[in-house]
Amino acid sequence: MSTAPRTAPPTRSARLSLTERRKAETQLEIARTAAALFAERGAGVTAEEIARAAGVAPRTFYRYFRTKEDAVAPLLAVGVRRWIDDLAGPAAGPHPPSVREALERAARRALTPAGPEAEEALRWTRGLLRAMPGDPALRAVWHRVHHESEEALIPVLARLTGAGPLAVRLAAAAANTALRVAVEVWAAGDEPADGPQGPAELVTRGMRALTAGLPELNGRRPDPATRRD
After folding, report:
1. Which residue of 76, 103, 176, 220 pairs with 150 in a disulfide if CB–CB is 3.0 to 4.6 A?
2. Average pLDDT, the chain
3. What is the pTM of this model?
4. Where is this region: Disordered (predicted)?
5. What digits encode the pLDDT tens for the residues 62-110?
6. Distance (Å, rounded) from C-alpha 9 to C-alpha 152?
7. Which residues lie below 8 Å from residue 139, measured CB to CB, with a gap of 6+?
């Protein structure tokens, strides 16, 4: 992490950036609290209870979120978008994988708990998914987050494959659906997150099944050193 020279005062844009980061941190903390309460108590939890447990005033809660269900969106978005950021990054090694392999690896990494915080996030997600049958608004947030994830995946796959709009949209829909269904199937049972029936294993099987008919994914990822933007 770079540090600005002592003689250089912070710019307005830097202060705004810090403000936005703090806002995002507050939203994520409220989201974690909301997820934990939904997982524990289901749809009966109120926005005021979430605010109190998160240590903020109800007015602050409603400044960030319209409804109690909206409060979990930042936490869900972190999970479903992490793999897109991974996929969009440069390929490691002298022999880049195919786009299909890169998709699969990124999804596996996103759903493999790398530490206590990641394990806890998956537990909260399991609890949220189990609470959704009693709260259609909560399920709507889940599907909205995944729709936004699919839309974000489209330009990444277009760049990596060079394929036409139909193939790219089909690939984005297939990959995003594989990830969503893997988490939903895992959440419905009691298997551990890192076991043979965990979400990382399930997404691998789902990704292979849903993308099997898309030869556009067989091409190698472009080498960032030779790209021309």
Report:
1. 176
2. 86
3. 0.83
4. 1-21
5. 999 999 999 999 988 887 778 888 888 876 666 788 999 999 999 999 8
6. 35
7. 132, 133
How far is Cα 158 from Cα 175, in angstroms, rounded to an integer?
Answer: 14
Residues whose CB falls within 8 Å of the CB of residue 208, separated by 6 or more in sequence, listed in order:
104
Element housing 200 (H / E): helix 199-211
- Three-state SS for 220? strand
Tokens of 185: 């199937």
Look at the block and give the residue holding tokens 């659906």: 177
Domains of the chain (ranges, CATH numbers): 70-218 (1.10.357.10)
